[in-house]
């Protein structure tokens, strides 16, 4: 596939899979969002991008109205493990992030999808275990982004999101996971 064919495939994919759910979608905002998603998909290794373009991974990206509280992007999924349907949910406020921080956050969400993040009903039931499980999934997703060769985007997102004393701890944990070997790759 040539670069221009890949670019057209990514654009077609995004126009079919990105939903602006606020009801009053502004064409310019949707266009800008798709441009950022496109850049993130182009940055991915080709075999990873092909998981989405081929339909092997069922993904919808939803842009929703700001909820009033600052929330991060999130990945949800449903369905049996052999036919999961993923959604990456973000809010209009995320479209105002700097491009590198936005892409770093979005890449983390794409890594959750590629790694086969389970639906919340399959997470541990106690609050303590759920918190630890969620943190572990975040570190594994970041480690996968690093393995894709996109460490700088991940680091910019983490540095912009977490207090400085947490950034070093997070980076150390990601380094540990990267050095251990392959990241969880789920059913894909």
Percent of residues in helices comes to: 55-70%
Instruction: Please summarize the sheet with the most strands.
Output: 4 strands, mixed
Overall, the morphology is globular
What's the number of domains? 1
Average of the residue pLDDT scores: 90
Class from helix and strand fractions: alpha/beta
Count of runs of 4 or more consecutive helical residues = 7
In which order are the strands of the major sheet placed? 1-2-4-3
Distance between the termini: 21 Å
**How many beta-strand runs?**
4
Poorly predicted spans: 184-188
What is the chain-wise order of helices and strands?
A: HEHHEEEHHHH
Question: Using only CA atoms, what is the Rg?
Answer: 16 Å
Q: Which range does the strand content fall in?
A: 5-15%
Assembly state of the chains shown: single chain
In summary, what is this structure?
The protein is α/β, with parallel strands linked by helices and 188 residues long.
What attributes does this structure have?
4-stranded mixed beta sheet; 4 strands; disordered C terminus; 188 residues; 12% strand; 56% helix; alpha/beta
Report what the structure shows:
- There is one protein chain.
- With 188 residues, the protein is α/β, with parallel strands linked by helices.
- It has one domain.
- 56% of the residues lie in helices and 12% in strands.
- A four-stranded mixed sheet has the order 1-2-4-3.
- α2 crosses α4 and α5 runs antiparallel to α6.
Helix-strand blueprint:
Elements: H1 3-17, E1 18-20, H2 27-43, H3 46-53, E2 58-64, E3 74-78, E4 85-91, H4 99-114, H5 127-147, H6 151-161, H7 164-180
Parallel strand pairs: 1-2, 2-4
Antiparallel strand pairs: 3-4
